[in-house]
Specification:
This is DNA polymerase III subunit delta. With 320 residues, this protein is α/β, with parallel strands linked by helices. Helix content is 52%, strand content 8%. The N and C termini lie far apart (56 Å).
């Protein structure tokens, strides 16, 4: 099985634990989104459940690997998933999904003595689902191992974190991200690739999503608002054109995340008054981003909100 880029240290820790004979039952895979933590979890689970001399199916269809993620939002979305098309998902991983998993754990694994359960991601668990999961983490069935992918481990309950061993995934160097982007998106322009690498902060997945969602023009307009302000609303008009008349939630969320990243980048270099405004804009954008998946936003008003927060933080021409 080929190694996943940038995962040498997690692999060393995982395999050392497997070889040690006292494998911890709960693992928390942490790091920024887009580093390949879910792919690592699947590959690691396949190594864990494999039995010598027993043919193993692919990890994606292995009977002893259970993956819990957000389900399709509707029956129509379920059909889109079956057809390999993009589909919308529900807001969270439900308690019913966790309880169905727990019922499976009362039976023996199919091909060997071990079973792996992957949560992609644990950040998406609804509150009652977290409480249900805690019971399994506190009293894990023999041969059951839990791999919890988390992009924001600080948001998980301390009782969940304390019952897991942490595997940390680090951002990759920009040069490595650029190499991956060039290999996977050769048709992208040099400008798009450069902007994607800069916006990704070491996350190949984030860079790929940047290009797939054609975010270079959006980033350009966001930067202009921060650097030049927008007293006549013309920049917000250009931002609206870049985002599009009917953007989906993913594109709006990507725009918010870009705006947050730009605020963080500028705040690190700004003078104190400007820095304070950027930090406040970053805070407001974070709150706004949390609301988007759960509310029905008018796309035009959402763009005005994003642009308005950046315009309020923009440094005046005199630098004060």
């Amino acid at each position: 099985m080929s190694e996943l880029v940038g995962h040498e240290t997690p692999w060393q820790e995982w395999r050392a634990a497997m070889a040690g004979g006292r494998m911890h039952h709960g693992w928390l895979l942490t790091g920024p989104s887009g580093l390949g933590k879910a792919g690592f979890a699947l590959a690691a689970a396949a190594e864990l459940v494999a039995e010598p001399g027993v043919p193993q199916p692919p990890a994606e269809s292995h009977p002893d690997i259970i993956v819990l993620s957000r389900l399709p939002a509707t029956a129509d979305d379920e059909k889109k998933r079956e057809d390999g098309k993009p589909y919308a998902t529900k807001r969270s991983i439900s308690v019913d999904q966790v309880r169905a998993m727990q019922r499976r754990l009362t039976t023996r694994p199919t091909l060997g003595a071990k079973r792996a359960i992957i949560f992609d991601s644990a950040d998406d668990l609804e509150k009652s689902a977290v409480n249900a999961l805690l019971k399994s983490l506190e009293e894990p069935p023999v041969g059951s191992f839990f791999l919890l992918v988390s992009h924001r481990p600080g948001g998980l309950l301390p009782t969940v974190r304390s019952r897991c061993r942490t595997l940390r995934f680090q951002p990759l160097p920009d040069a490595e991200v650029e190499r991956i982007v060039a290999m996977n998106e050769p048709q992208a322009s040099s400008e798009a690739r450069t902007a994607a690498v800069r916006a990704a902060h070491g996350s190949p997945g984030a860079a790929m999503k940047f290009i797939e969602n054609d975010l270079a023009a959006i980033r350009r307009e966001l930067v202009r608002i921060v650097e030049e302000g927008d007293n006549d609303f013309s920049r917000r008009g250009a931002l609206a054109a870049a985002i599009g008349a009917r953007p989906d939630r993913e594109r709006l969320l990507a725009s918010v995340e870009l705006a947050r990243t730009i605020c963080a980048e500028c705040a690190a270099l700004a003078s104190r008054p400007f820095q304070a405004r950027l930090i406040e804009a970053h805070t407001q954008l974070t709150r706004f981003g949390r609301e988007i998946p759960y509310a029905n936003f008018d796309a035009g008003l959402a763009v005005v909100e994003i642009g308005g927060l950046l315009a309020a933080a923009a440094v005046p021409k005199d630098g004060r």
